[in-house]
């Protein structure tokens, strides 16, 4: 297993302007992802993909060399993560530095740790398309998720005869923290078409993803009140 650790940090953020370099508990948010990657790999196997000069400067101030600036066509609101990942992998292939696995670490998961990533990587094998971090969803299509029928009335998203949510099959939501990706699979299709995907479950508190100012405020609250999230 030869992994490339990829940190993706686009400059334009409408939900939280400048979030990737905005201080979170006194440290730019981006640095948490860099610290996690550095606990697992040397800098030469860590790639920051960004389109923003200020993010490049922040990374270089932290001692991480940035191998390229992301092309403008991969830096719009419509740019997909698939193209961004392929661009990074192709860059290293052209440098005669092939990898067989991609570990994607998005900066917006400040509570993801190196141990989380190690645990996810331990679940990976070459027969899989991907190992992805998830959190168990409190909302369940067998119980309290509904769809609107053509007649305008609601029906449960999935048929089932359950009177308690605890009795329903567990369902999971991607939390955006860790993706361990088979590059042979990525060369053939985007993540949305992967079929051999194994889950790595994280707690709801460690799964907080920063997308809105409310997310940010909640994450700061959690970080300063960790005793409230401890398991008895």
Helix content: 25-40%
| Major β-sheet annotation | 6 strands, mixed
Q: Give me the number of helical elements.
A: 6
**How many β strands by DSSP?**
10
How would you state the average pLDDT, rounded? 93
Considering the chains and any ligands shown, give keywords for the structure.
alpha/beta; 25% helix; six-stranded mixed sheet; two-stranded antiparallel ribbon; 6 helices
Write the layout of secondary structure elements.
Blueprint: E1 3-8, E2 23-24, E3 27-28, H1 29-38, E4 46-49, H2 53-61, H3 81-94, E5 101-105, H4 114-122, E6 130-136, E7 146-148, E8 154-156, E9 172-182, H5 183-186, E10 197-201, H6 213-224
Parallel strand pairs: 1-4, 1-5, 6-10
Antiparallel strand pairs: 2-3, 5-9, 6-9, 7-8
Question: How is this structure best described in words?
Answer:
The protein has 232 residues and is α/β, with parallel strands linked by helices. It is 25% helix and 21% strand. The two termini are 37 Å apart. The model has no long low-confidence stretch (mean pLDDT 93).
Task: Give a concise summary.
With 232 residues, the chain is α/β, with parallel strands linked by helices. It is 25% helix and 21% strand.
